[in-house]
TrEMBL record:
Residues 7-160 form the N-acetyltransferase domain. Keywords: Transferase. This is Acetyltransferase, GNAT family. It comes from the Bacteria. CDD domains: NAT_SF. GO terms for molecular function: acyltransferase activity, transferring groups other than amino-acyl groups. The keyword Glycosyltransferase does not apply.
Amino acid sequence: MNANSKPALRPYLPEDSEIVAAIFVAAIEQLTADDYSEAQQEAWASAVDDDETFGAKLASQLTLIATLGGAPVGFASLQGADHIDMLYVHPDFVGQGVAATLIDALEKLAGARGVPALTVDASDNAADFFARRGYAATRRNTVTINGEWLANTSMKKTFADVAAPGADQ
């Protein structure tokens, strides 16, 4: 793949469930070891154990798939109008603009809908990425998944000048 190639985006399709689950697990296993224990990673990754439920969750949200050379390499989802629920990039493609492309798209979609701000509960390894993009920490959280406690940070980005739908840009 060309180093200058920009990720393409497309909507999530039900047949993406398996590859998206693989990206989810690989990202957790390979990118979060500095911030979470092995037991915490296993609990977190267990969200894909029931692939029907995981696929249904992605299908119920606005989920975008990032591709390079036609192959899925990352995904992001918007829960409701204003909450980034998931952002995962396959470890082999980190640093190639995949996450930025996905979040840019979600921010543009939210802005076009007149949403004044986006929120995210960022994992410890993703908090710096969101902070660089203008998201401010609002509180620290602890969540329990399969008996394991995991910390994350609620963050919010307010859009300075949200155009009303249909307004000239």
